[in-house]
Amino acid sequence: MDHAFLLSVFILLAAASLLVPLSKLTGLGSVIGYLIAGVLIGPSVFGLIAEPETILHFSEFGVVMMLFLIGLELQPRELWGMRAKLIGLGGLQVGLTLVAISVAVNSLGYSLPASIVIGMAFALSSTAVALQVMQDRQILSTTPGQSGFSVLLFQDVIVIAMIAAIPFLATSGGSADAGHILHEASDHAPAAHGAASFGPTGIWRGLAVVGVFVGMILAGRLVVSPLFRFIARSNVRETFTAVALSLVVGAALLMGWLGLSAALGAFIAGVVLADSEYRHQLERDIEPFKALLLGLFFMSVGMSLDIAVIQADPNLVIGGVLALMIIKFLVLYIVGSAFKMAPSSNLLFSALLCQAGEFGFVLFQFARAENILDPALISQCSAIIALSMALTPIVLIIHDRFIAPNFASPKTEGERPINQKNKVLVLGFGRVGQIASRLLHTQDIATTLLDHDGDHIEFVKQFGNRVYYGDASDIDLLRLAGAADADVIIIAIDDAEKSTQAAKNIKEHFPKAKIVARGRNRTHVFELMAIGVDFIERETARAALAMGRSALELLGVAPDRAKQLSDDFLFYDMQLISETWQHRHDQDAMIKNAEAGRAFIKQTLNADKNRSVEQDR
Question: Tell me, what DSSP letter sits at residue 404?
Fold first, then answer.
């Protein structure tokens, strides 16, 4: 195998492995990490990778796979329901942004054709960046996510028309033969995320588009599902992966043949298979390839960033980036407002799509071939696109920290507690507190219920529960709730720190009350034991033992024996906790005691088993 190729692969993987986790941990996100890694290893800095364009063309297939996976999550009826946003929202955004940027660029002295091409390129957003951020934040199903996805999908379609328009712009007032221009545009169009076009032209092309889409739908229903069932019966996992990849590649090739976007074809293929029972298997098989290629795509964008171009005219490039993102943000916000988006959703939607995208690189190559843009201007515009993509995660961080909090819904509060003279006070009405209070209710024991989550209080009120609002660690609030008159106080809150503080306050200020507390883990149990809590229940211990007991029974152990083992294990484990607690400040002693305790429990349970066998004899 070629040594240079292996070295390039190693450099790419090593750079990503070092910088992406670091970027993620610092809160910048994985996209910024990939972009920084690309800049550092690219020609502009260390020059470890000499030809980033080759990697860019290959890694663009990661965007194609991402659209396929998104299509799998979107049922056909959901796509039909998005048609208003797809055409209206997407069309308005592209149209208004194109006009605004074209006018701005033309006013700087550039020719009208050049201004329109730059306007078209900058009107498009980055499918790769925006969708990756949406997936990371899990907001694809929200209003900003659905709206953003609709705009991106429209852009994937309209880019074909933009490519077809470039030869018209290259002529003087459109005097050239229109048929020749359309034929030439058709030949070039598929370069946008696709292969070279060699398919039908004219009216036959329109019929072919319809035929291919109908064929994809029929093949998804009649061919692909039976094929998957056959492969599933063969139980050869790698074959399933090969077929999954073949579907994506095949859809991309078909779109290339038609002169359409490969990403659009993959998305349609995903939607066709969204109803398949093998959808989740397809997602698992494609996801690793998508993630790797998408990471390479972001790195190649970073590598293609020419630092020398920025240094030659930093005012133009940086000013261009700021102007692009501000204009686009304002247009997106206006369009979102026209579609009656809530301000908070609209701001996030605008921040997600205010960058330029990877299709811009494609449009510039066509414009260069038609002599509309010169190489120097293309380099500057490409730098503006790459920087806008790199700045998107930072724009979103600014949105999250400084803008979104101003639109956050006010925290719901509930009714302040009153002293009902009940004998039991329950602090925390979540899954633990609810079960405990329900058991008491079966014996007509009245309880005063307290919780700190106003929204949850409003929810449980629908089921007839009267829960008061308040912080369980607040002494004055506990007094208002009747802690001084309570015989038992159940601490069922899931915050270990607040639970410990509440137990301390109750012990100090309401010593008459017995405390029953929920222990989150052994460390929390030790803290509660140190306070002198009357009864502590580890929240997962009995549930875990019930699962273990069921497993023993399924393995053939007699139910009575399994129950005895479970009960004895709990008894001895509680003894072990009591012994270990005395060494809680000495970690080495705790570890040694825990090891000895586990051995003791195993030996004791097996000794009990042997005694049972002897007695049976």
Answer: G
User: Are 220 and 270 spatial neighbours (Cβ–Cβ below 8 Å)?
Assistant: no
More confident residue, 235 or 120: 120
52-407 and 410-538, same CATH topology:
no
314: Cβ contacts below 8 Å, ≥ 6 apart: none
d(CA 392, CA 140): 17
Could you tell me the maximum CA-CA distance found in the chain, to the nearest angstrom? 107
Q: Helix (H) and strand (E) counts for the chain?
A: 29, 6
- Given a cut of 60, whether residue 192 has pLDDT beyond it is no
Rounded to whole angstroms, the Cα distance separating 579 from 590 reads 9
3-state secondary structure string, 227-288? HHHHHHHHCCHHHHHHHHHHHHHHHHHHHHHHCCCHHHHHHHHHHHCCCCCCHHHHHHHHHH
Q: Which residues of 407-420 are buried (b: 16+ CB within 10 A; e: fewer)?
A: eeeeeeebeebeee
Strand ordering across the sheet containing 467-469: 467-469, 447-451, 424-427, 488-491, 514-519, 535-538
**118, two tokens:** 């730059």
Taking a C-beta distance cutoff of 8 angstroms, is the pair 1, 30 a contact? Answer: no
How many angstroms separate the CA atoms of 477 and 470, rounded? Answer: 7
- β-pairing, 447-451 vs 467-469, is parallel
pLDDT at 528 (0 to 100): 93
For residue 315, give the DSSP letter.
Answer: H
Look at residue 14 in the predicted model and tell me its pLDDT.
Answer: 92
Domain 410-538 falls in which CATH fold?
Rossmann fold (3.40.50)
The yes/no answer on whether domain 52-407 falls in CATH 1.20.950.20 is no
Alpha-carbon span 617 to 613, nearest angstrom: 6
Q: Which token pair is 291? A: 């993630």
C-alpha pair distances (Å), 71 with each of 75, 77, 267: 8, 12, 5
Compute the average pLDDT of residues 541-555. 94
CA distance 64 to 248: 8
Q: What is the pLDDT of residues 571-607, one digit of tens each?
A: 888 888 887 777 666 667 667 766 776 777 777 777 7
Structural domain spans, the chain: 52-407, 410-538
Bridge partner residues of 448 (DSSP) = 425
Residues facing residue 514 across a β-bridge: 488
Buried b / exposed e across 115-136, counting CB within 10 Å, b at 16+?
bbbbbbbbbbbbbbbbbbbbee
Nearest to 505 by CA among 479, 468, 523, 534: 479
How does pLDDT run across 130-179, given as a tens digit for each residue? 988 888 888 888 889 989 999 998 998 788 788 778 888 887 443 334 33
Which two structure tokens, joined as six digits, stand for 176? Answer: 């050239």
Instruction: Give the residue carrying structure tokens 């709206």.
Output: 147
Pairwise CA distance, residues 544 & 557, whole Å: 17
Which H/E stretch holds residue 517?
Answer: strand 514-519
Q: How far apart are CA 493 and CA 473, in angstroms?
A: 10
| pLDDT at residue 247 in the model | 85
d(CA 33, CA 12): 12
Instruction: Report residue 6 as tokens.
Output: 């292996």
